[in-house]
Design goal:
The chain is an all-beta fold and 118 residues long. The chain is 0% helix and 61% strand. Strands 2, 4, 5, 6, 9, 10 and 11 form a seven-stranded mixed sheet that branches. A four-stranded antiparallel sheet has the order 1-3-8-7, with no helix packed on it.
């Protein structure tokens, strides 16, 4: 199983970016999918998660600005980021709970850099 993230980049404050993360490989089902970010010198923190049924949860710092969604047919999770702030800068990692023939495991993507300039 692999998670491939894309969509990061450099954007000015107030701008928008859309991240995508596609899961591939041997997959029976995907439960929770989410996005985490890690700023330089800081721990990796939750940004947003979405359940298989579409229930969402967001970090307080991104509520009202970010939207997480998923396409179950494509095994893909998205993060629409609007009104970006310099403090949103960091490496964004996707995460997913995936069940396959080996059972259930948690997987991480490789990370995509988001840089917001002031």
């Amino acid at each position: 199983v692999q998670l491939q993230a894309s969509g990061g980049g450099l954007v000015q404050a107030g701008g928008s970016l859309r991240l995508s993360c596609a899961a591939s490989g041997s997959i029976f089902s995907i439960n929770v999918m989410g996005w985490y970010r890690q700023a330089p010198g800081k721990q990796r923190d939750l940004v947003a998660v979405i359940s298989g049924g579409g229930m969402t949860n967001y970090a307080d710092s991104v509520k009202g600005r970010f939207t997480i969604s998923r396409d179950n047919a494509k095994n893909t999770v998205y993060l629409q980021m609007n009104s970006l702030k310099p403090e949103d800068t960091g490496v964004y990692y996707c995460n997913a709970d995936i069940t396959n023939w080996m059972g259930g495991s948690n997987y991480w993507g490789q990370g995509t850099q988001v840089t917001v300039s002031s």
